[in-house]
Every structure is written in structure tokens, then in C-alpha cells.
Design a protein that fits this description.
This protein has about 260 residues and is α/β, with parallel strands linked by helices. It contains 6 helices and 15 strands. It has a single domain, classed as 5-stranded Propeller (L-arginine/glycine Amidinotransferase, Chain A). It binds citrulline. Citrulline binds next to loops.
Length: about 260
């Protein structure tokens, strides 16, 4: 069977605005520099486009400091899109801001109504199934609601755990192809990827785990040479994108786009 799990014709992104300096973060490691973040963001968008995809760039949303992290607002599948219900109260309004952009591309758009919560960063769609990590942002009720919605489109969901203290499930893993996962050792040790081929991030490079396979390229945060070398050694075409400013807000490569 052809592996289409990493083939995308489109992505939606949103440029960061001035309010991004007030974005959520687990620990304060400094205020993000907007100009540098914009340069990194432009490099990210250009790299997605280089693979032949159409990339929509939405304008900044000053009312929502974390709006650059569009991944958390929706799950995009071939059959339709599901609008999320973020567990972070300051982020819930981002969903309605994303809906019109998705309507340009999808006829079937469904919505997590609650009371549960779920964010896109906790969802990993592989060639076989949809893995959803329970986290501080995603609860069992949110996962149950998503499970019912996507069952209608033929997608099985498996609920898994996000390691304690880790923001999202995909903070610690990425899909490299239909059955190969890049993951931190701490996440892989939970057994959630048993049956998949797993490439571990190098020790001390756990922040490299949030990468994306987008068509011919793997986009990963710059500054993790051992992990980049492992991926190149395995035959992947890796692009390293500056992520220093998004990292101050616990964001990485996957958070910056919706891909479909
Ligand atoms: C947040 O805490 O919600 C943002 N500062 C970071 C979101 C990162 N999103 C993602 O991993 N999908």
C-alpha cells in the first residue's frame, strides 16, 4: 500500500503578532524576540512551500498571544476537519478564528463541543491509527468525543499517556513515515509505539522530537546535531529551522501549521 501519511498539498499557518511575548510557557526562559520569530516563521513557511504545497499565511491575532501555534485548534483529516476545544482557557477563542480558513478547503467540519478538552498537539495521526495523549490540555472526555467523530470516517483512536511535565504528546514525538516515529526515550519507554519502528532523539536533545515530515522533507528545530545526524543517516532529507523564540513558549515545528 502506498504510504500517504506524510503527503500534504496544503498547510495553514498564522504569523505571530506583538502579543506573542505574553504567550503561555511552563518556565520563563526569556521574552521571545518577535523580529527573530518572524524570520524563523518565514523560513518555516518557505520550506513548506519548497515541497510544492500551497501554504496559507493568516494574519496575526493580537487578542490571542498563542495563536501562532495553529496546530492546537483543529485536526485535519482527508475526510474532514475537527475543531478542537483547547484545555488552555486563553486559547479557546482561537478555534473560531481558524474555522473560516478551514471552510475554504473542507465541506465536512465538525466540532468538539465539550465538556471535555482536546488540543491538536496531543494528536499524532500515523499510517494506521490516531494516537491521542492525555495531558494537562487533553482529557478523557475530549478524547472520547473525538473518537466518536472520527469513527464515522473510519479512523481508529488509541488513547495514550503524555509523560508528566510534558506539554503535549507531540512535544515528545513525530511521524517520520507511516510506521516510523521519532520519539524521546522517555515517551517510547511507555510502550505506546510498540509495533512501530522508533528512532530516538539523542540524549540531551529531547526538544528535537517535535519535528514534522512534510512531503519530501523533515523539518526539525535547529541546534540538535546528533538527532539530525541520526535522521540523515537513516535516509531522511532534514531541514533545520530556527526555533529559539517559539521554544521559549514551549512550541516547535508541528505547532506552527495545520497540514492536509
Ligand atoms: C501553549 O502553551 O499552548 C503554547 N505556548 C505552546 C503550544 C504548542 N503547541 C503544540 O505543541 N502543538
Amino acid at each position: 500500500m502506498t504510504d500517504r501519511s506524510f503527503e500534504f498539498s496544503r498547510a495553514i499557518t498564522r504569523r505571530p503578532g506583538h502579543s506573542v511575548t505574553r504567550g503561555l510557557r511552563a518556565a520563563d526562559t526569556g521574552t521571545p524576540d518577535l523580529d527573530l520569530m518572524l524570520r524563523h516563521h518565514a523560513d518555516y513557511v518557505a520550506t513548506l512551500r519548497e515541497t510544492g504545497a500551497e501554504v496559507v499565511e493568516l494574519p496575526p491575532l493580537e487578542a490571542f498571544p498563542d495563536a501562532v501555534f495553529v496546530e492546537d485548534t483543529a485536526l485535519c483529516l482527508p475526510e474532514g476537519a475537527v475543531l478542537m476545544r483547547p484545555g488552555a482557557p486563553t486559547r479557546q477563542g482561537e478555534v473560531a478564528e481558524m474555522a473560516p480558513a478551514l471552510r475554504d478547503f473542507y465541506d465536512d467540519i465538525r466540532q468538539i463541543e465539550g465538556p471535555g478538552c482536546i488540543e491538536g498537539g496531543d494528536i499524532l495521526t500515523t499510517g494506521r491509527e490516531i494516537l491521542v495523549g492525555r495531558s494537562a490540555r487533553t482529557d478523557a472526555a475530549g478524547i472520547a468525543e473525538l473518537t466518536a467523530i472520527v469513527a464515522d470516517w473510519g479512523h481508529p483512536v488509541r488513547e495514550v499517556d503524555t509523560p508528566p511535565g510534558v506539554l503535549h504528546f507531540k512535544t515528545d514525538c513525530s511521524l517520520l513515515d507511516g510506521d516510523t516515529i521519532l520519539a524521546t526515550e522517555r515517551l517510547a519507554a511507555t510502550g505506546c509505539f510498540d509495533g512501530y519502528r522508533v528512532i530516538h532523539t539523542a540524549k540531551g536533545e529531547e526538544a528535537a522530537a517535535n519535528a514534522i515530515r512534510f512531503n519530501s522533507l523533515v523539518l526539525m528545530a535547529a541546534g540538535f546535531p546528533l538527532t539530525a545526524g541520526r535522521l540523515r543517516g537513516d535516509g531522511y532529507a532534514v531541514r533545520e529551522i530556527g526555533n529559539s523564540e517559539c521554544a521559549k513558549l514551549d512550541g516547535g515545528m508541528s505547532c506552527l501549521s495545520l497540514r492536509f
